[in-house]
Specification:
5 domains, four-stranded antiparallel sheet, 12 helices, alpha+beta
């Protein structure tokens, strides 16, 4: 996605360099397309009085518009907080907010309902911007304080409230951390109210961003918002090597992309017999050694002859299993394996019309030197022949 601020100029992308907070708000992964924006409400219907507001670190909340303000996507508003007010950006209005609240089971009535105060004034925006400029240097100092106190935790980000009255410190830790002394140090150094909030390693990676092993930006930092649990069984079903260094992402957990094709593999494996199912033949009992999910092939080996594998299809394996269920045996696996005709010869054609890749290689010089030596030897022999003939005549 891109916005007007991120358009290209002279073939080069300019980039708004606002990290998802540009004016048109089209560079953020949490941006929602309001496909009901051009549709008018029926006569007599009042617009839905709830608004979706986004804050830093992918935080979204829903607020009631009690003042009947005319709001649209991209407006900066001052919202109610537990103490003071916060500044955020409107990301969704209208009937789609009702759908989102219903999907997330957010009640429209209750005591904990928050409201929108007003559209943010220039003074509110200046205080908010000045507070956000303090976050990065504060994060560096906060990490040093945690190291000095020898706490096993990592402070990943800091978020100021819109009125600069409170700072929320996001951190990750393997175990429970006693940070009571750390909060005292923060309050004394930074002169503001402190709130500590622990986040997971996947959420930390989504905020920090980075490049994955595939060469593209991390899914969690670009478009992925639903962090489902990933288990090693997903790698087993896809026949991947159980190597933690290859299966782990930058967050140190299993890669989220292991779940992308898992359902397709599970559907394909429904037609495969279980790996622990044995095939009984007159020649012996065969055990499954390997499966190829894409081609639908299985390799079996007789007990005691583990080096000799016989390849059959899933249909043939299921046919043998059905015969075994009737307490019968087939003659051997060789009968089924012989039916498979495997073409291992690969022919590549030049469909693009390109020349050989070695056409720019410099010719080998030792061949020319060898030819020159042969020519010089011939010339020497030709010179010597007349002298020998004269001596012979004398």
């Amino acid at each position: 996605m891109a916005c007007a601020s991120c358009s290209t100029k002279d073939g080069q992308p300019k980039g708004c360099k606002n990290n998802g907070t540009c004016g048109t708000d089209s560079c953020n992964k949490l941006t929602v397309f309001d496909w009901l924006a051009n549709m008018s409400l029926p006569n007599g219907e009042k617009p839905f009085d709830w608004v979706e507001v986004r804050f830093k670190n992918g935080r979204k909340h829903y607020y009631k518009n009690l003042e009947n303000l005319t709001l649209s996507i991209g407006d900066i508003v001052a919202t109610q907080a537990k103490s003071g007010h916060d500044i955020g950006m409107v990301t969704l209005v209208g009937e789609l907010v009702r759908v989102q609240m219903k999907r997330k089971n957010i009640a429209q009535e209750g005591e904990d309902i928050l409201k929108i105060y007003r559209k943010a004034s220039q003074k509110d925006i200046d205080i908010w911007s000045a507070a956000r400029d303090k976050e990065e240097p504060m994060k560096v100092r906060a990490r040093q304080f945690a190291i000095d106190l020898k706490l096993q935790m990592k402070i990943s980000d800091i978020e100021f409230q819109g009125d600069a009255s409170k700072a929320t410190f996001y951190y990750t830790a393997e175990e429970r951390v006693d940070f009571r002394e750390l909060i005292k140090v923060f309050a004394r150094e930074f002169r503001t109210r402190i709130e500590m909030k622990q986040v997971g390693f996947r959420q930390e990676a989504s905020r920090l961003g980075g490049i994955g092993s595939c060469g593209r930006e991390l899914c969690c930092s670009t478009w992925l918002t639903d962090f489902r649990s990933v288990s090693t069984s997903a790698a087993r079903y896809q026949q991947l090597s159980l190597n933690p260094q290859k299966l782990a992402g930058q967050c140190g957990k299993l890669k989220c992309c292991l779940n992308y094709e898992l359902d397709t593999y599970l559907d394909a494996l429904k037609s495969f017999p279980k790996n622990d199912t044995k095939l009984y033949t007159e020649k012996g009992t065969a055990v499954c050694q390997k499966t190829d999910i894409f081609k639908g092939h299985l390799w079996y080996a007789y007990e005691g002859e583990w080096m000799n594998w016989h390849k059959i299809t899933t249909e043939q394996a299921n046919e043998i299993i059905e015969i075994n269920r009737g307490k019968k045996k087939v003659a051997s696996l060789e009968e089924y394996a012989s039916d498979l005709v495997e073409d291992t010869k690969a022919e590549f054609e030049n469909v693009v019309g390109q020349d050989s890749l070695t056409r720019f290689d410099s010719p080998k010089r030792h061949k020319k030197r060898k030819n020159n030596r042969n020519r010089s030897n011939k010339n020497r022999n030709n010179r010597r022949k007349p002298q020998n003939s004269k001596n012979a005549s004398k």
